[in-house]
Design goal:
Layout: H1 2-5, E1 9-15, H2 17-29, E2 33-39, H3 44-57, E3 67-70, H4 85-110, E4 123-129, H5 141-161, E5 166-172, E6 176-177, H6 180-185, H7 187-191, E7 196-197, H8 199-203
Parallel strand pairs: 1-2, 3-4, 4-5, 6-7
Length: 204
């Protein structure tokens, strides 16, 4: 919503069509331009395919794709001895493997851009992290492993591609965010202003 209000055309990616279709309708009815791109999963194949679709929809010279936000995450909160191999695979696939695939497509797209005269860069890639990106805790061993990996990836990409005028940032967002999912599964947390975060405030 914040990007749309700022004048960006927005490509929305998510598993399941309802959420992105509804948000696209909202943004378009408010005078913005948004297109939904639902995916079945966040596998490298799915992400490659959806980026191809996005670049076809928002192609030059009218459009220039210069910003990408990776906001995928998978939480596993269990005591260490209760964590299953599937829990580990899921955390790493969504927090790390998907981030690699998304980043590859974003950076290849940015490299096609000229350096913006007003912004001084060719593109910006933003990752969202958590406190577990910095330190582990008693039930976050699988989750923290994935988030540590995501932060390390962002740091590596910033070093490698910063000299090519591609900006990479990692933002720590510490807390439960008031989304439809939180309202559905944790209504008490969603109602409490002391324990939940407002997504609009985060974006701004």
């Amino acid at each position: 919503r914040v990007f749309s209000k700022a004048g960006y055309s927005v490509a929305l990616i998510a598993r399941g069509a309802d959420s992105v279709n509804n948000l696209a309708k909202e943004l378009n009815s408010s005078g913005g331009e948004a297109e939904p791109f639902p995916v079945n999963a966040y596998t490298p194949k799915d992400l490659n395919s959806v980026w191809t679709s996005i670049k076809s929809k928002f192609s030059g010279p009218h459009y220039s794709i210069d910003t990408a936000v990776f906001n995928i995450g998978q939480g596993v909160w269990k005591p260490f001895l209760e964590i299953t191999p599937e829990d580990i695979r899921t955390s790493l696939e969504l927090n790390v493997e998907a981030a690699f695939a998304f980043s590859r497509e974003a950076i290849l797209t940015f490299k096609e851009n000229e350096v913006s005269e007003d912004k001084g860069k060719r593109g910006t890639l933003i990752f969202t992290g958590a406190t577990a990106s910095l330190r582990g805790n008693t039930t976050t061993s699988a989750f923290a492993a994935g988030k540590f990996g995501l932060r390390a990836l962002s740091q590596s990409l910033a070093k490698e591609f910063g000299k090519e005028n591609i900006h990479v940032a990692h933002a720590i967002i510490d807390g439960s965010i008031k989304t439809e999912r939180l309202i559905q599964y944790r209504p008490d947390a969603a109602k409490s202003p002391s324990t939940r975060l407002d997504p609009t405030s985060i974006a701004e």
